[in-house]
Amino acid sequence: MTSSSGAALNASENARNATLERCLSVLRDAKNDSEQFAALLLVTKAVKAGDVNSKTRRRIFDAVGFTFPNRLLTTKEPPAGCPDHVFRALGLTLLACFCTDPDLASHYQVLSKIPTFNDTLTSRCDPGDTSLSSMVDDAYQCLGAILATPKGPRELVNRGTVSSLCQAYVSHNFGCDRALQLLMGLLATAEANCWQRAASDLMAVLSVLSAEFQKAEDMTKFQLCKVLPCFVPPPPLLHQDSECLGSLYRGLSRILSSKLSAVQRDPALKLAACLSQACGSDWIPAGSTGSKFFALLVNLACVEVRLSLEELDPAEVDGKQEVVTACYVLIELGILECTREERPLLGQPQKIQLVGIMEEAFGAVIHYLRQVGREKLEDPFIFASVRILGAWLAEETSSLKQEICDLLPFLIHYAKMLFEEGRKTGDLSQQAAEVAGPGRAQGSVWPGDALRFLLPGLCHLTAEDRPQKILVSEGAPALLCQYFLHQWKVLTCGCQTQTPLDSVEISLQTTCGIFLNLVVTAPDLISQDSCFSTLMTALLKLLPSLLPQRDRLTLAANMATLGLMMARRLAASPVLQETPATESFFNATISFLSEAHAAQADPTSMCLAVAVSPAYEAAWPEISELWFLGMQAFASCVPLFPWLPQVVLRSHWLEDLLGLLGRVTPASVDLELITAFQGVLVELARGSRSCREVILQHRGEEQANLYGMAALEQCL
């Protein structure tokens, strides 16, 4: 730049500054509206030209304040010869200028103008009308500035901005691309509130986007892959729009069936994962075309996981975390479809092939987790990797046995670390148990409850010798005992939790299943590890309060049977001496066992028959095995606790049981049930003269003969 041109620029800038200073002076000293209006026109011209910095903008506000812009926005009668919107345009320009200051953007005077900004977006505007289009630009600038403030998103949602932005986009109003960007920003920060307030408007935007996505033949379709995940609604809204689902499926099918670069494929996989999170596999049509696409989708996800986790250095995986997390969602859907029996999307040969492909992917997940350093354990991606591995182990433990056994120490250490950290920071259920979905913001919160996702796999593994020994040596029983007690507290405390109570209850049931496996396959461990005495003490207290809650009968069945099985191994311990708590526990188990069957009229024979009690019918498929196991365990406890027959006598179980057998036709009682009844009756008859007398008084010998209970007949 020559010295003469530099001098010219300096002279021009000095002239502008001098003009602006005169305008500000006029604004401060204006004696009437006309003088202030004239000065403002010059100021806004400078603002529009971008000739003012933040310091100067603040000086403009100090000179003008909010009063005059407010009047400009509400004045209905412009000067003769001026357009109708001239005052309004000037007011919006001033507010847009002020909003560049974050403090002013969050001022209540600006927030109160949100409805005005909304109306400006939705008004028809000819792109050739520079004055009106300038107003729209200013309104978008104000809304964007408000969105960037801490309380801005809530204010915008509450004051109807979401609907206005949706209408502006759907109507293709001037600046509609900016409306889409603002909507994405609002959904990223206040998604639940946005859908709650403006679900139909947001669905209209999604409908437009999905139609564009299906038709697009250029790079637009890949750009839309990045936009669409923001607009995937919470369930069940997407299920209700089959046309939208069809457009999204057809668009993705065309993309993923083509040869793609990673830059093009990754957004498509993320979009597919978002759709799968929202509605499972329902977005994919049934039939051969849909099943082929689904197999391709899961196959691509597995390949991506292998490429990212096997071939990349752990440090390089960080850049691929978001797409790999999306692939985990798709693989989990693949697991569900491979285990689905009713109306499966996949045929049996496809399932077998897909399981083999997924096995290779999980080999890569295990490989990655074994490389992870302790410093990365708080990374939510590690949690996502453990979570998907838990989903695999819940269904498949026969493959990758060696690799899984080698990883078990890490999994227990990781689950224990999260559990202990969760207890330090508050209730585990208050932690974010899910990693943010693909296409949505990743939070910096503590990952959450890993054990919840590992429990089903651990239930399988504790039934096998080798993994069981590893789990025991790593302290899994003590960890599971603490977890059980904590989850019980969550279930019963009545506090708010992010984890659904149904899920908490299932976790408790599965933990009982793990302990049952240990009781059956490692009985010596029960008396050696102190955590089982702690657990037994808890069950003595918890079962009596749980059993009356009929909606939790499955959990009660698990706890009653587990307690009886453990009581056989802990009979000599101080925990199970004759105390009110112990008697209350056995009374509860008697209630559970004795109330499972009743006499009901058989419509075919018009006679009474044994049937599952109405209160037990719904849960019986889940608890029948536990009931029979509980009957065996109770019978085994009778000789171990000399005072137990007296508890039975006080409960009148013997009279009820023999009365039931006396009322029904013997043909209605199957052999397995007869065996269960006989086991308890024999032990009571042997262990207590009083019980034997009650049995004899209630036609016990006759019933034993009638039902083929040879052992009972001989005992009596």
From TrEMBL:
One Pfam family from the record: Neurochondrin
GO cellular component terms attached to this protein's record: cytosol; dendrite; glutamatergic synapse; membrane; postsynapse
Any single GO BP term: bone resorption
Family the entry assigns: Belongs to the neurochondrin family.
Protein name: Neurochondrin
Source species: Sphenodon punctatus (Tuatara)
